[in-house]
Amino acid sequence: MLIQKLETLHDTLFDNLSRITDGWFMGLAARLAFSSVLLGYFWNSAATKLGSGFPGILQAEVGAYAQILPPIAEAAGYDPTKIAFLPWGLVVHLGAYAEFLVPLMILLGLLTRLSSLAMIGFIVVMTFVDIQFHGLDAKAIGVPFDRVQDAIVSDQRLLWVLPLLYLALNGGGSLSLDRLLGRLSRTA
Length: 188
What we know:
Elements: H1 2-21, H2 25-47, H3 53-56, H4 62-68, H5 70-75, H6 85-108, H7 112-133, H8 138-141, H9 152-170, H10 177-187
């Protein structure tokens, strides 16, 4: 009897909680969790790659080439003028601008699924470059399912990708620009 009452209480509580949060909470929570942890990180990283002010922000700094394309930057003696714009300069510029725009789009819930997939791809490429060209050691790379939770690749980046994976599969929710723009387009 007591077990049945506890089970009923449990079911009622969580059914009501699911009903109240349905459609808006998880998308918003995933966007805010990703953004609160990583928006500033990626914006700061992008700021180190581009010049300041206008027109400086249109020009990738030497550090951008060194961070994004280490072997190509090294081969050019870290002189961006010796690196072809197509394809390498374009890759560097798009990578730097993506660090600004894609996290902002995720926060706002704009093209959320596509933005989330783009950010996952960005993190995968960033991880490859970090391991292959920036010399991350085995401790920094880590091992999944070990008892240590401080590896910047296997532990940290897995947690970065989790809210993005949710967003890619489910969208930004009803409190997103995607939903607002969808409503506006249906009424126009």
